[in-house]
Amino acid sequence: MFETFSIAVLALSDTELTLLTFALLFAGSLIGILLLDNGDHLRRGPYFAWYGFLTFAIAGVSFLFVFTIDAVVAQLIWALFLLAGIWLLIAGAVLGRMSAARARDMGWSRWTGLLSLVPLICLVLLFTKSSDPDSDDPHLLAGVPGGLIGVAFFGMARAAVPYSETLALKRETQMPLSAAEEAIYFDFHIRTSGIDTYLQNIADQAVLPVQVDEVTTLAQIETSGHVMTRLYLLEKEETDIEMTDDWAADTVEYLCGHAFFSALLDAGAVIRERFAYEDGAPIGLIEVSTQDCAKPV
So what's the pLDDT on residue 139? Predict the structure, then answer.
């Protein structure tokens, strides 16, 4: 059940993820206004500081996903999503409480605090004067200090997401994995997008040509459904090459023993290794499926 939930979340589009994030913040804000609101009033300065801090806290949930690869190989990705959901609910609850206090200070209903979740309209809460502007504000962040702190947090919030994405990519590319962990990692991502889409992504993202050895170049990758065909070109100086049984057996052994290709095959992919000369003259084709991996070599 947890794994199904994780795959469903990862399969969401950017728009759907944004809507899910908003829903969690909205639910948290309702809790903050309804259950945690204690009748306080909050002036513009301290509210600006709080709003900036909470904006940074909400953006900071992205830092959890720096450890996505760790969670996947430990098969605890669901826990990462659960923690992110709780994080957003708590941030929403605090935001709801602070915004209710700001709305009350403006002389408006505490439920006006929900405007804090609406882009641009939230500026009403940030800049509207107090309903009692002549009274002293004893808050430590009153006036300019609160504004400056808020601006600093807004700047940090803006940088948080791209910075966390950079850290996540760096960790994903540099973290050493055992063969078993690699298999878990590849299998999870394949099942997240589906084998057909995953193979198409491989073809779309491939940087070709790739020099395999002194005479062989990987020149093309094509996909059709669950079938991936890789074309290798051999230098024209190489002639009279025959596709032998040993060549085919070595190819099957390599693909079935490689964590990445093994995960593709287990997910139902068929890998076709096509060899030809640079002038297009064919040499041969080796087709490998998961059934071939079960055969004795």
Answer: 65
